[in-house]
Design goal:
Elements: E1 3-6, H1 17-21, H2 30-34, E2 47-50, E3 61-72, E4 76-86, E5 108-113, E6 119-121, E7 125-131, E8 134-143, E9 156-163, E10 169-172, E11 179-184, E12 188-190, E13 196-204, E14 214-219, E15 222-226, E16 232-235, E17 240-249, E18 262-270
Parallel strand pairs: 1-15, 12-18
Antiparallel strand pairs: 2-16, 3-4, 4-7, 5-6, 5-8, 8-9, 9-10, 11-13, 13-16, 14-15, 14-17, 17-18
Length: 272
């Protein structure tokens, strides 16, 4: 399978020093950005093109204020997570020029439990039912209204916890190994929303670059190597079911081992 390396050109993608420095744990160097070149759209073939970040939110902060649990039934617990959000307005519409799918409910939090499809939170609280005596990763980050993540340490939070047999929450140290969390695309797309889809993910404990970690994206069997942590647009997808797989790889193209390093999704496109 041919591997297509995606690098954004200076003209297409020049990230400011603010964007480059906003995430000390997982950012790209300015030199890597300037060296990149973008894949151009090819009629009839799937294309994946890097995009510049939309409106920035300096000082946007997401914190988890509490995680609690209560037993429900004989073998489950209801886990409730509450957040503190500052310098970011949930439910506001984000100013942008993108034509990709946008939430009419506005800006929100992406709640990703164990790398399953996220729940969009428009209020800073969410509950989910899980088995007793189970361990979980929870990745949370602030999102623009059209679902592009705010890729900063302050605007995100990764935790690991255990729900005990008696429905108590126990904190577990979060591993410091590189990890990848899938965000978009997700679900069903109809009409104009099928023309350009947002491909977005969240990287922790590592940086992307030509000589560092990459994300290998497999879309309907076609492979792309993403070496920048930016949003991407996916073009020319066929109607019907489409398969996405994201895998974190090292500089030699070898799959990284550990938790949360490879995720698969199916999405559906329809004309109406």
């Amino acid at each position: 399978m041919k591997m297509t390396t995606l690098r954004a050109s200076i003209a297409l993608l020049t990230l400011s020093a603010t964007i480059v420095s906003c995430n000390p744990t997982s950012n790209n160097s300015e030199a890597e950005t300037q060296d990149s070149t973008a894949q151009t759209e090819t009629t009839g073939a799937i294309a994946v093109n890097p995009l510049s970040h939309a409106k920035e939110f300096p000082g946007a902060t997401l914190k988890i204020s509490s995680i609690t649990a209560e037993k429900v039934g004989t073998d489950s617990a209801k886990v409730t997570v509450k957040y503190d959000v500052t310098n970011f307005e949930l439910t506001a519409q984000t100013e942008h020029e993108h034509t990709m799918a946008n939430s009419h409910d506005g800006q929100h939090i992406h709640f990703i439990l164990d790398n399953t499809p996220y729940a969009a939170l428009y209020k800073p609280e969410h509950s989910v039912t899980v088995p007793l005596n189970s361990e979980h990763y929870l990745m949370s980050f602030l999102s623009r209204s059209f679902h592009e993540s705010i890729k900063t340490t302050d605007a995100s939070k990764l935790v690991k916890f255990k729900v005990t047999a008696d429905a108590k929450i126990e904190d577990i140290p979060t591993p410091d190994q590189p990890a990848l969390f899938y965000s978009r695309p997700k679900g069903d797309y109809v009409g104009d929303d099928t023309k350009a889809l947002l491909l977005d993910f969240f990287v922790v404990n590592g940086s992307l670059g030509a000589d560092s970690y990459n994300v290998k994206a497999e879309i309907n069997g076609q492979e792309f190597t993403l070496d920048q942590w930016v949003p991407y647009e996916v073009l020319n997808l066929p109607m019907g079911e489409n398969n996405f797989k994201l895998t974190l790889v090292d500089a030699d193209g070898n799959a990284v081992t550990g938790d949360n390093v490879s995720i698969e999704r199916k999405i559906n496109l329809s004309a109406e």
